[in-house]
Amino acid sequence: MSTAAGAPSPNDLEKTKQQIRGLVQEISQLSRSDMPPEQYYAEVLHRVVTALAAHGGAVWTIDDDRRLRLDYQININSTLIDTENPDSHKHFRLLQEVIKSGEPRLIPPMAGSGEADGAANPTNTLLVMAPMTTDDSVEGILEVFQRADAQPGSQQGYLRFLVQMSQHIGDWLKGRKLKTFSDRQSFWAKVNNFSKDVHDSLDVRETAYTIANEGRRLIECDRVVVTTTKAGGKQVVQAVSGQDTIDPRSNIITYLQALSSRVCATGEALWYNGKLDDLPPQVEKALEDYVDESHTKSLAIVPLRKADMIKQKSTDELGTDETVKYQSNVGDVIGSLIIEQVDSTQSRELVAPRIEEICQQSARALGNAIEHNELFLMPVWRTIGQSRALTTAKNLPKTLLISGLVLAVVIGLIVIPKDFELKADGQLMPSVRRNVYFTQAGRVTKINVEHGQIVKKGDPLIILEDHDIRQMIEEAKKNREQTIEEINLADKTAFGNREAQAATKPIGQLKVELRRFESQLERLAIREKELTVESPIDGQVMTSKLEDLLSDRPVSPGQLAIQVADPTSEWELEIYLAGKRMGHFSKEWAKAKAENRPVEISYILKSNPNAKLKGTVKSFDKDSRMHSEYGHGHRLVVEIDEEELRNAIATADTAGAVVEVKQGTEVIAKVKCGRAPMAYCFFHELLEWLQMTMFSI
Question: Which of the following CATH numbers is that of domain 433-563: 2.40.50.100, 2.10.260.10, 3.40.1570.10, 1.20.120.640?
Fold first, then answer.
């Protein structure tokens, strides 16, 4: 069947209809999805514009403040989004009219009221507008910029199609609203439970742990840390989500406390998402130190303020009434809440409302706990409150008897003296031993020895590989050979070879370069030799698990490689005394020197605690050092009786094997520091802690 010239064939029309039906079906499926708004509007608007063969389109929505917002557009006229252009004002009023009426409209090109401030279509295209509604509430407008030469029937078809598409968008908006309401209801239920949990206890540490662990679940972040304010405004970490204990001396905790202290001093929250912009220098430096140590990607530090009671007056038909409200953003800073994302970043707009709500509840609960524990003699009042039954007539005689016994014990502890001893941990070591350190950087390629192996002085223990040194040696050799050739060529100039004279440098300069290359080769040869770690003495390898520690791993200069000791030499005891106990030891050491006597210790082997052995302190380190097992402390070298030690080992050896003293045999030692009352011997650390605490107040 033939068609008129220029008119589309029935097959083309049917194909176009099928294409439009497919686009409509795709839009319907998209409207049942849960994709983000920006992606949804882009997918839908592209299909609408394609189906109508329009010039462009736009999606306008109404935000929470009931203001129109352009969410997505295709080929929109720039004058319509320029707030300074009068055409933008006319178009904006046209959108407001459609929202107010809730009816779809077709607006011809350049059509309007004619007034300067009236609604109008300032473009040369036909505007097709359809409101997007949810339960009779207009949530926005779907707008299409269509060609103006279409027939009236086609224009009505455009409008009907756009109304149908706006209904799909309205259904999608309704689904998002329901999901948002459901999420909010779930969140407020969790906040309600959180509020109950954080107010369950008046203990500061328990409250902080509840805030950290429950707050992490609510905020949905990697880690939450709670700090409290101490004297001088210093922030002290009280709780870290997911951790039962905290090491206050660790680098991360130290840097975090310094950063939190400086942020709380400003009184403003800190938000970090990978960029250090417009921060005070002291805060920026502390933040850099912490991020370098923790590798966190996103961080927020929000100061917690004491909830102050604010009285407000309100007037109603019954007169003026005074109401009491608590505001948590006006009081003194009592701590901070630290929220971290370690592996990814979180949008501030997404987590800020949750954090704000958590901070309000946390500030009030933490403030109550701190205020409760600061009451005068609170531990005493708490004990008395729990002990009312002891003072009843029935139990009073027993109470008096027990009180008398307790008083007698206390007096005895104060009056009766005993040996004042300081506890320390340590291990047995040969007196002749050497720590061997790497002097060059490289990668361990071969370990020639194992734990317990006997070695001779100069034996290769560990082999390193450094490709840079090998490459520099080859390059220096090549430069040396090339310089020698140039010197030989320069010698020919002495026989009038002008060509050779023009091709070479002065022979004096060449000889200087040759000496420089030879000197470089000598230095590189020394460095290459240092890639082999040799034994400094005859002895035995004392380092265990060498393969696990060093095999195929990069090392750096100054790193401990291996320890070699002579097991045939005399044995001594190394013990590590904590720095807080060195004051007592130093006094005893000075007193013993003045009286020309040694400082005695007693120790037991962990393998044979029944045998109590003795020794004398030979020397000690005035500076503390870090030990991998015993932590920070001062090393004391103790002279021991080897025969007494071997007898103790033989007693513990029930199998009847040959008695052998082994390096690393662990001991528990007590350093004798004179005599003191029993109470002081038992509770001297508590007394010292109280002295430091009272001094810091």
Answer: 2.40.50.100
Tokens of 43: 């997918």
Q: Cα(87)–Cα(159) distance, rounded to whole angstroms?
A: 23
In CATH, 201-373 is 3.40.50.360 = no
Return the CATH number of 10-181, one of 3.40.50.620, 3.30.450.40, 2.40.50.100, 3.40.50.720: 3.30.450.40
Instruction: Report angle CA 412, 415, 418 to the nearest 5 degrees.
Output: 90
Pick from 111-120, 373-382, 540-549, 662-671 the range whose average pLDDT is largest.
662-671
Distance CA 95, CA 66 (A): 13
Q: How far apart are alpha carbons 280 and 102 in whole angstroms?
A: 52
Domain map of the chain by residue range? 10-181, 201-373, 433-563, 569-696
- Asked whether the beta carbons of 169 and 199 are under 8 A apart, the reply is no
Express each pLDDT in 102-151 by its tens digit. 899 999 998 877 676 788 888 999 999 999 988 778 889 999 999 888 88
The answer to whether 568 and 433 are in contact (CB under 8 A) is: no
CATH architecture of 569-696: Beta Barrel (2.40)
Burial of 634: CB neighbours in 10 Å, binned 0-12, 13-18, 19+: buried
Residue written as token pair 């178009």: 91
Domain 10-181 and domain 201-373 have a common topology: yes
* CB of 455 closer than 8 Å to CB of 461: yes
Beta-carbon contacts of 31 under 8 Å, excluding residues fewer than 6 positions away, are: 44, 168, 169, 171, 172
**Poorest-pLDDT segment among 372-376, 463-467, 543-547, 555-559:** 372-376
In the DSSP assignment, the letter for residue 431 is S
CB count within 10 Å of CB 449 equals 20
**Tokens 């002891």 — which residue?**
390
Predicted confidence (pLDDT) per residue in 407-448, tens digit: 888 888 888 998 999 999 988 888 888 888 888 888 888 888
Residue 170, Cβ density class (10 Å: 0-12 exposed, 13-18 middle, ≥19 buried):
buried
Q: What is the DSSP letter of 504?
A: S
pTM for the structure as a whole: 0.41
Closest CA relative to residue 228, chosen from 148, 129, 136, 333: 333
* pLDDT over 70 (residue 535): yes
Distances (CA, A) of 346 to 191, 271, 296, 353: 20, 11, 12, 13
Confidence of residue 672 (pLDDT cuts 50, 70, 90): very high
pLDDT at 379: 65
Task: State how far the Cα of 390 lies from the Cα of 693, in Å rounded to an integer.
Answer: 32
Question: Can you say whether residue 409 is alpha, beta or left, with left for phi > 0 and alpha for psi between -120 and 50 degrees?
Answer: alpha
Rounded Cα gap, residues 359 and 365, in angstroms: 10
> Looking at residue 232, what DSSP letter applies?
G
Task: Give residue 249's identity as a one-letter amino acid code.
Answer: R
Cβ burial of 292 (10 Å; 0-12, 13-18, 19+) is exposed
Q: Which two tokens stand for residue 211?
A: 């805030």
Instruction: Give the pLDDT score at 218.
Output: 86
Adjacent-strand bridge partners of 228: 236, 335
pLDDT at 637: 92
CA distance 314 to 312: 7
**C-beta of residue 70 within 8 angstroms of C-beta of residue 82:** no
C-alpha–C-alpha distance, residues 208 and 670, integer Å: 38
**CA distances (Å), origin 365, targets 190, 194, 196, 362:** 16, 11, 10, 5
Question: CA–CA distance from 121 to each of 16, 61, 91, 113, 647 (Å)?
Answer: 30, 19, 6, 10, 107
